[in-house]
Amino acid sequence: MKKIIAAAFLAPPLAAAAVLAALLLHHVALTPSCEKRAGESGIACRAVIAHRGASHDAPEETAPAYLLARDLGADYLEMDVQRTADGVIVALHDDTLERTTNVGEVFPGREKGPVSSFTLGELRRLDAGAWFNARYPERARQSFTGVPVPTLEEIIDIADQAAAPPGLYIETKSPELHPGIEVELVRLLRRRGWIGNPAKRGRVIFQSFSLESLGKLAGLAPDVPRVYLVDEETERDRGSWETLVREARAAGSGIGPVGYLAYPWHTGPARRAGLMVHVYTINLPWQMRLITLFGADGLFTDRPDILLEIRGRGKGEAPDAILARHGF
Ligand code: G3P
Ligand code: CA
After folding, report:
1. Tell me, what's the pLDDT at 11?
2. Are 72 and 319 in contact (CB under 8 A)?
3. What is the per-residue pLDDT across 2-22, written as a single tens digit (0 to 9) for each?
4. Would you say the pTM of this structure is higher than 0.90?
5. 90 DSSP β-pair partners
6. Are the C-beta atoms of residues 109 and 103 closer than 8 Å to each other?
7. Alpha carbon 255 to chain centroid distance?
């Protein structure tokens, strides 16, 4: 009798495990290996992509977030690029400065103005750190107050100054607001030796929600890998995951789905179609493990510290200690 009861309890989880194993075997194990692709392309395998820098512990897309991500050992520094009124490429996520700076105090009435309506000189008057202290008091540091919106060149300096520089994972954000930014971006990266340099193969990756922007980048710098970012809305608009995979493939890009789309029956077919799959934005350890098991080639994360530990690549220096070492 006891055996029958035990079997009744064990059968459902065993059946579920068998189904999961079959799914993984079918969709994930039988796909090209991340290691093989990494060897051919120079792109880090099981990449740790520091989303807006190490943005859990420091204000997103600022120097402390990028210094921290770099010193933790992230493979790539992720950033969203836009262009100022006087033509300087800067890193900022939102179309406006309202959420992450004190623009309302410094330039009252211009809160809703696009980044492209401010000169670099004007951006330099803004504080891109105080909002973080107010929103996350448990992670606040007085020294974050006053940190500026960085230029792309300043982030490149941060990468270049490392003994083993991290890569740059650059998103053209709202490219329709910055016509021609692709040309200027590629020109800048060439001048700084990040494009057209065999030693940097796979160390720059372009990403965008805009296939048009990716197409322009492909024409300007065909050897730089690209990733087509997609979310549930994109899937709804385009009709199906299969369409997204087809479009990414036609664009010569990998695919960067939001975590909710990173099922094995999505990642498997994408990888079998030859696409690299980098999933955003994954911050919880169980999600990092599961989505990696589902076949992701890399993860965007605000917590490169945690993901590096999971990968067995932690360097043993705590985020607090790294920030302090840099004067934060
Ligand atoms: O670039 C990957 C991910 O960053 C896309 O989302 O909104 O954080 O730029 P978002
Ligand atoms: Ca981004």
Report:
1. 66
2. yes
3. 566 566 666 666 666 666 665
4. yes
5. 82, 151
6. no
7. 12
